[in-house]
Write a structure and sequence with these properties.
The complex is a heterodimer of chains A (182) and B (298). In chain A, 31% of the residues lie in helices and 20% in strands. Chain A is of the alpha/beta class and 182 residues long. Chain A has a single domain (8-167), classed as Rossmann fold, CATH 3.40.50.700. In chain A, the strands form two sheets. In chain A, strands 2-1-3-5-7 form a five-stranded parallel β-sheet, sandwiched between helices. Chain B is built from seven helices and nine strands; from the N terminus they run ααββαβββααβαβββα. Chain B has helices at 2-12, 14-24, 52-58, 108-124, 139-147, 182-190, 251-254, and strands at residues 36-39, 42-45, 82-85, 88-91, 102-104, 170-172, 196-199, 206-209, 236-238. Chain B starts with a helix and ends in a 44-residue tail after the last helix. Classes of the chains: A alpha/beta (182), B alpha+beta (298).
Chain lengths: 182, 298
């Protein structure tokens, strides 16, 4: 493969997100065929590769709600030249961060123990389970993030615009209709 | 020596601008031509006593603003409408236009500062647009779109601000308050009810309800009040109409705020959410669990 046709390597992951942003990414539909001419995927739910190797672009959906999220985010930052926060949760914590004004122990009690209909419930404490963080954080509070695509989810057109701008070597820009926080 | 310096400063600076402002720059130029200033190179006419933002709006030129509403006396607090007038930063909602003034507004320098102000407003409150019934009709959000705010940039405060759903027809969601004081001004100056006030200082400033209980239900507030219709964000919300207009079809989905000369705060609301502390069950294993890490521990 010569330099002209060398594909950019892209990794994606969903941390404290709902995979809605990935679904919206897939909503670029037949433009995916154009995209795979230009990029190849590293770690991603689309490839099922489990660890992130050296990449040109890393795309992070979701914020940080547990210790594993932080480790994965740092792995992406260490390996990706450009890191993109995709969607409201990565940008500002989003829906999961709405627990931040409650104490985590009160939430766990409510969900696993005190809620109506639970009998002998207990709060899961398996060593394999990543520990929840006391608060949910957007990713820019932990690592440097190069670009942000807000939205819940960002539209396929917004994602396509940012990716094609980057692939063309331009600063990505979302005008009216593409920039949305909702 | 000191006296000389003071005199020199005042004659070159303040003294000159007062003289020019009062005598020949206040609305009608000496040669009886209509008074004008330039805004980003465009000539803007004005009449005596008009502020920069009033004259700009009358000429159809948008200057970003949040606490300014043409129906009310300016408050000058949000600083979004800051412009450079003859090279000096000033709030265009409080600064009177003067003949020959050179004003800059839509420049990279000023928009960068506006973006930082917006980012601070976003991180100081809890602004989760996807779950806000005001989304699409919100001036804070629309202004952030206009200025191209792609991220909140700063660390979030995630403050704890309980709702007030006590009133039968209106909900207060303090999470979104930007302290513009429009509801305070409307309730005091138009409704004559003094339902709202800003309390505390600095980062502790917050909106309060003027009742012994602190609850909206215990005031004379009603949906007929001006104060019910001036909130530029999603604090004062009419109940049971939240999604009558779906997200995606709202004012600023249709056109940017810069193309909406007088953005009317459209009332849009959600039904109240149940509040209350989570009950703790009798057989909790919470005490046996390891402490939850903060993001700094990982």
């Amino acid at each position: 493969m010569n330099a002209e046709t060398k594909k950019l390597r892209v990794a994606t992951t969903s941390l404290a997100g709902c995979f809605g942003c990935h679904i919206s990414f897939l909503d670029i539909d037949e433009r995916l065929l154009d995209l795979v001419q230009l990029v190849e995927f590293d770690r991603s739910p689309l490839t099922d590769i489990k660890t992130c190797g050296p990449c040109d672009i890393g795309i992070i959906e979701g914020g940080l709600c547990n210790a594993e999220n932080v480790h994965v985010l740092r792995e992406f930052r260490a390996n990706c030249k450009i890191l993109i926060a995709l969607g409201a949760c990565a940008v500002n914590g989003g829906l999961p961060a709405q627990r931040n004004h409650l104490s985590l122990s009160a939430i766990l009690e409510e969900v696993y123990h005190a809620q109506h209909g639970l009998v002998d419930g207990f709060i899961p404490n398996d060593p394999e389970l990543p520990l929840p963080l006391d608060k949910v954080h957007p990713i820019h509070e932990v690592v440097k993030v190069d670009y942000f695509i807000p939205g819940c989810p960002p539209s396929a057109d917004a994602i396509w615009k940012v990716l094609t701008d980057l692939l063309a070597g331009k600063e990505p820009e979302l005008g009216h209709g593409l920039i949305h926080y909702d | 020596m000191n006296k000389d310096v003071t005199f020199a400063l005042s004659s070159a600076g303040v003294g000159e601008s007062v003289a020019r402002g009062q005598l020949d720059r206040g609305g009608v130029a000496m040669n009886n031509k209509p008074a004008t200033f330039t805004l980003d190179g465009k000539t803007i006419p004005f009449s005596a006593g008009q502020t920069l933002i009033q004259a700009a709006m009358a000429a159809g030129v948008y200057i970003p603003h949040l606490c300014y509403n043409p129906e009310f006396k300016p408050h000058g607090s949000c600083k979004l409408c800051t412009v450079k007038a003859d090279g000096r930063h000033t709030s265009s909602c409080t600064h009177q236009a003067q003949d020959g003034m050179v004003v800059e507004s839509d420049t990279k320098e000023i928009n960068d500062e506006r973006r930082a102000l917006l980012q601070m407003l976003f991180v100081e409150g809890n602004h989760f647009c996807p779950s806000c019934e005001k989304s699409g009709n919100c001036q804070l959000q629309a202004t952030a779109y206009e200025i191209g705010m792609m991220s909140p940039h700063f660390d979030h405060f995630f403050p704890d601000r309980p709702l007030d759903a006590s009133h039968p027809d209106y909900l207060l969601d303090f999470n979104r308050c930007i302290l513009c004081s429009l509801c305070v001004r409307a309730s005091r100056d138009v409704d004559g009810k003094n339902v709202f006030a800003l309390s505390g200082r600095g980062i502790k400033s917050h909106l309060i309800v003027n009742a012994k209980s602190g609850r909206l239900a215990d005031t004379g507030f009603s949906g007929e009040d001006k104060a019910a219709h001036v909130c530029p964000v999603g604090v004062i919300l009419k109940k049971r109409v939240g999604f009558a207009v779906p997200i995606g079809s709202r004012s600023f989905d249709e056109q940017p705020i810069s193309a909406t000369p007088h953005p009317g705060p459209a009332a849009a609301t959600l039904p109240p959410h149940p509040q209350g502390a989570c009950p703790v069950g009798p057989r909790s294993n919470a005490a046996t669990l390891p402490p939850h890490p903060t993001v700094k521990d990982v």
